[in-house]
Amino acid sequence: MRKNELFLIFFILPLLTGCWDERLLKDSRTVYLSGFDLDENGDYQTTSIIRDLNISQASRGEISISNELVTGKGDSIKEASMAIDRSVAGKYDPAKGRTLILGNEVAKGDIYNVLDSLYRDPRVDINAKIAVTDNSANEIITHLSENEVEKGEYLYELIHSSEIHSEIQDITLRSIRTYLFDEGKDFMLPYLSKDVEDDEVKISGAALFHDHSFTGQFLSPDESTLLLFFMETKSKKAILTEQLDNKDDVSVSYNVKSVSRKLKLEKEEKVHADIMLQLDVEIVDYPPDHLDKQEMINFLEKRLSKILTEKADALFKKLAANQSDVLGLGRELIAFHPSIWKEIKGENYYEHILVNPKVKVNVRSSGIIL
Amino acid sequence: MKVKSRISSVVLFFVLVQTMIGVGLLSLPHQAHHAAGSDGWISILISGFFIQLIVLLIWLLCRKFPNLTLFDFSKVILGRTSGTVLNFLYIIYLLTMICYIFIIYADTLKRWILPETPGWVLFLIGFVLLIYGTICTVKNVISLFSSLFIFILFLFVITLFVYGDPSIDVRYLFPIGSSGGWNIIKSTSDSMISFIGFETLLIYFAFIKQSKNISALKGAFLAVLFVTIFLTYIVILSTVMLSPEEIKITSEPVLYILSAIEIRILSRLDLLFLSIWGLIVFTTIISYSFSASMGISKLIRVKHKFAVILSGAFVFIISMIFYYMEITLLEKWLKHLSLIFGIIIPILLLLITIIFKREAASTDEKK
After folding, report:
1. ipTM of the shown complex
2. What's the pLDDT tens digit per position in A67-118?
3. DSSP of B76-105
């Protein structure tokens, strides 16, 4: 029996599959950041930053990082990356890209054309973040490669911290596909722009999408935070500041602790969506104080509710103008009111929906002082 | 011929669960959605209930022939010649199932993690493992299965990480029943495929202690219940994670979802899932090949070891041929085959035994 087992082990050893499927780090050129653009002829242009690890023999294996900017053109994204592959030494490996940037022109077209090849490759990190720029992706990436050392990571962290502060929707390469294939839901992506004064790349808001393409409009961080409340998907922190009085220049900052939403859909001439939003907030910055008095708290609650309701009104008008159903009202109709959905379904179903938002603010806490 | 070793009915739970949860797990949500839309989970539940009935019927059949496997009592019921033919068909069926599992296994691995590895290597590994796992007594098989059961729980634990994802949308499950009652019921015949493996009960019931007692069924019932809940859970999970149109073009939704999950120190949970899934698939293969080789050894009167090598070689060659010539015949016929061998033939056998009052005692008289 012992002999048999030994024989078996020797038989299996050469079959260990790693031998075929090894991909050595030294052979592949790992990409940390990619961007996609569309040129005048309708060709796709891919811009990537490739990171090289140079392990020097001279100084005791000290590792230095160098970056290389590469571009390639082609009729499809895959052709563009093949073009890059031909121009670099080693194998161009886009799988590890942590962030993808869509140029303005690409985003305005059908973005699934760009993403398709990524979904087909099992090695691609589909947890990557996606962003839209106000100009070409090439410009942003060129800027980053000159000014920031940790390119891909820098953008990733930038987007990630915005997500933590509930300024943009938490969306990855995987979840974006869910939205693209959903007829009753749209989404928003972080909108990057280059600040001329500071010479820095910033997130200036959230780009609104309708169906598969960018509408050209974007929401400011405040607006998108409010929209995230309406979607009940805020993250840990959400700090907003409102000006209470224009004359006295008094403002209050508050952190929204919890959100609850009530949604009622009714079909009249149009589909009326009455949304009642309850926000439990914690005051984090209010110099005039007097929060020990109930009247003061009542005043604050009333004032904030009014301001936020007005803002929400403006927000939903903006969404309606772009037909961007980020709230997922279409999905709500499909799920709970299939008869209404049957009447209005189609590409532009959002025209038939009238949103009537209402916000109620409850002050729950004011930090360690009153 | 009577079987010698005895197993308790609780152990049957592990054997059945390991046989039933197998290669279909990955593509199940895709197929359930294809058949019944967002109501796929209902159709899984219904077929689970249906399988319980079938298991009951199989038990009613087997209790008439205590200590005899299908390969023995088929001769009692149908007579020597047609019984032998039926045994032969069952052996072929079991071996075809293994071939099918082999092909799906190799194909999935090649697409997800081992694109450069030649297909024959995967088949060879399968072949070696099949022989290694099957050359033993039923006791060894059972101890292997019950210890590997922990990995099924492990699969379950991995899927728990999905709940951190913000894009979960419960609304994808609604409206419940949108595909219409009749469509859901029709689709149960498709989702029944995910339960195949229960037909090995025809063989394993022979090993049970006191198989005449209704308590012998306990393990089998619990196993089907467990598998039903597990599969329903997997289907619901994929339905809330992916939008309906998306599931249609995602052939392995579970892997796809897991590949996007990142927990602090681990990313690509799909690779972890796949490697554990590989083990679970092999228990299915071992269970099938154990049954098949038992049939072979009885059919042509050879030792169990020799029968195992014979069935292993058969599976290895046939699945290689099918894989390299890209014959998709198996997939098409599998559904019908499993319905015939898992449900129709046992019911027919039961009817014959009841009508003609066949019992195990009659064999002893003939001998």
Report:
1. 0.84
2. 788 888 988 888 888 888 888 877 887 777 888 899 988 888 888 888 888 8
3. HHH-HHHHHHHHHHHHHHHHHHHHHHHHHH
Which distant-in-sequence residues (6+ apart) come within 8 Å of B186 by Cβ? B35
Question: Given an 8 Å threshold on Cβ–Cβ distance, is A20 in contact with B260?
Answer: no
Q: Are B17 and B223 in contact (CB under 8 A)?
A: yes
Q: What does the pLDDT look like over B308-362, one tens digit per residue?
A: 999 999 999 999 988 888 777 777 788 888 888 888 888 888 888 888 877 665 4
Average pLDDT over every residue of A119-132:
87
Q: In chain A, which residue's Cα lies nearest the Cα of B246?
A: A181
Helices (H), A94-150: 104-108, 112-120, 137-147
Residue of A241, A226, A214 whose CA lies nearest to A167: A226
Tell me how far apart the alpha carbons of residues A32 and A55 are, in angstroms, rounded to a whole number. 19
In the structure encoding, which two tokens stand for residue B143, read together? Answer: 């101890």
- Whether the bond into A190 is cis, omega within 30 of 0: no
How far, in Å, CA of A106 to CA of A213, rounded?
9
**Region at B197 (left for phi over 0; alpha for psi -120 to 50; beta for the rest):** left
Q: Which residues contact A320 (CB under 8 A, 6 or more apart)?
A: A350, A351, A353, A354, A355
- Shortest CB distance from B116 goes to which of A21, A178, A185? A21
